[in-house]
Each structure stands twice: as C-alpha cells, then as structure tokens.
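Methods: example folding runs. The two proteins below were folded one after another, and each record is reproduced exactly as written to the output file, sequence line first and structure-token line second.
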Amino acid sequence: MAMTEPSPPPNTPSEDVHLIVAHDEEVTIEYFPEDWLAMAVFWALAFIIFLQFFTRYVLNDSLAWTEEIARYLLMVVVFVGGAMVVRRNTNIAVELVPNLMKDGPIKRALTALVELTKLFFLGLLAWFSILITERMHNLYMTVIDLPMSLVYGGVALGCFMMVGRQAQNVRKAARRGFAPAPQTPISPIE
C-alpha cells in the first residue's frame, strides 16, 4: 500500500498566495545643510543638558558653565531650525482669506505680496542680527571668557539661512506665476 500526502483542505490558500497585499510608495528622505547643522547643535545641546543633570544630581557637584551654554545652544538651534521650516514652507500662517478665494489674479497678487513680505521681514531680521552680533563682540559670557558675538553669530547664520530659503521659495512661486503650490494628493485606502 502506497502512502500519499494528504491534500490541503479545499478552502486553504497555498503558501505563495497572500491574503493581504500592501504596496507602499518609495519614500526618499533628503537632508539639507540646515538639517545637519540643526541636528549637530541639537545633539550638542542634549549632551550638555545630560552632563548638567549628571553632575548636579549624580555627582552632587554641578558644572557651572552647562546651563549658560545650553541656553545659548538653544538660541542657535531655534534659528537654524527656522531655516528648515522656511525651506519646507511650514511656518505658521493665517490662510483664511487665500483659502476662501478662487484661483485668479487677486489670489496670485495676494500670494506674491505674502511671499515678498516674508522675504522682506526675514531680510530685516538678518540685518538686525548682524548689528546685534557686532554690538555683542565686546561683551563676554558670564562663566566662559568668550565674546557673546559667537552666540549671536549662530543666530545671524540661522537668519541668513532663512533669507536664502525664502528667496528660493519666492523664485519657485514666481516661476509658477504665484499660483498655489501643487499638493501631493492623498490616495484613498484601497
């Protein structure tokens, strides 16, 4: 008598048939100079805060300079991170009026005005950051004998990075005639 393998039950799928099929779009992650700079400053800030916590609560002998340097690094990471926000055009904005308007010359003029106004104010911020950096050169940090212009130089760098990214945004918007930026459609779940 020959032994045969039992056949699978009639409603059981074979091993090469999948019941759930998921197709994901390929995700590309791009990093820009301001991303790397913000990440480096952020991790330096995290290390200094950890060092402050460790020396204060574990060793019971706090390093005096950690609080001051952490405060200054936080200032730099905010302004360098602002360049990331401007690049992605994800800054906080009141969009009620443009969203209610139909696409046309008035909406495009309003978009142009908003983009150019942002560029103007960021340029003004960059200019004032240079002025304050120059004025702070003769003042020194409290604990470390370094000029405060180093701190405000990081702020100025972030401001100029924001101006550069906003100039790119204005150029892109002008190329499309200040029409609304194309949005990536969200596909429904299939």
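Second run, written to the same file directly after the first:
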Amino acid sequence: MVRTFLTLAALSCVAAACVCVGKARQTSYAVSTERDLIFSHRKHLQRPGTGCADCHELALMSTSAAETLVPLERTCLRCHNGARAPQDCALCHKAPDRARSTAPERRSFRFNHKLHLGFGNIAPALARAVDSGRYLGLPGDMRRHLNSDNPCLACHRGVAETDLATSQHLPRMADCLVCHSKIDPPFSCTYCHTEDARLKPASHTSGFVDLHSNHRAVPDKTACKVCHGVKFTCMGCH
C-alpha cells in the first residue's frame, strides 16, 4: 500500500541505513542525522509505489515533537537486502566508524503529527491563503508545491525535489497560522512553543525603536503580523 504521510520532525533527519560495529549486524537503532548518511529523498520518492510513510511510519502515531522519527535500519532493509545490513557500511554511511544511534531531540515547540495528519491534506487551505493574500509571510515559490496529492509535501515543501532534506524543508510559522489564526501574544505563543523557546527576532535589540526613527530599519508589517497578529498596528508598539 502506498502511504504518503511525512513528518515535521523526520525531515530534520533522513532515512537510516545500517549501524556497523565490527561485522555487519542487524540492529533496530535509528542512526544519526543527514550529515552522516548517503540518502536521496528525491530518488526514493520517484520510485513507483513509494510514499513518505513507507519510511517514516513512526510519524503516523507520533504525538510529540520530541519523538525520534528517523527510520530504523529494519525499515531500510525491507527493500535493501531484505535481511541484514550489507558488509560495506560506506554504501550508506559517510563515516562508518562514527555511525551512532540518535537520542530524542529537545524541541522548543509542541506538535502532534497524529492529530494533524487526521485532518488530511492542508495544501488547498494553504493555497487559498496565498491566493487571497491572507498568508502571513512571504510565500515565494511555495504556491507551485501546493498541487500535490501527497499531504506531507504541503508542509514539507520541496523535499521531493532534493537529495538532502534540511531544516529548510520544515513548515514555516506562517503555515501554522493559516489555521491557528488567533494570535494574542504572549499568551498564544505558549500553545505551541515551550517556555524556553527563543522567539524574539535578532532585529529586536534595545535600540530597535531608534532604528526606525533613523530610517535604518525597513518596516515589514507582514513579518510583524506573524507574531503580533493581523490587527497589529505600528502605534501598538510606538
């Protein structure tokens, strides 16, 4: 069965291969990040009958952003060799001698994949927001990625066209605000962000107001609305 769900957290990593210590052996560990692996999302998603959840099956039941959603070695072996890791670890690992298992990452946000995947494909909602001008961000070329039947690619745009998935393929805050449109800072921030999250933009220094008065800061109300809401006005801060 072709399954097409993909996960927010899984794209910070990529599909795993073998963990090699001495002789090649079967293991259930997830392996380290994309920097250590030889893997192409583009090539795998081009294979007929291959969907995102064929590798990222853990996302379907994930309720926490802190969960490790990197595919396990046994997931890779369903197609690759079928039984045990190959003797040549360098086929998948850039540095086999440093291959290691991953630990759950500490996240500064909260996210429930299982809940959100239950809503289906949100690409049409994102497309309507862009087309109507309600998207609280600079959409760039995102519109061309919103015509896929793959619900994963609505949030993880461009991953099907790349070899190395990075944080650039994670959803933007403006994506979330298409549905989660009630913004009442700082109270609404804690719905999704942990208390130790660093949300203050680098531009918001102690002299931020002075930069405006000296015309050295170019106001971008669209960017302000992401944190301050659609009813944001300059007079609200000044």
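Comment on the second run: The radius of gyration is 21 Å.
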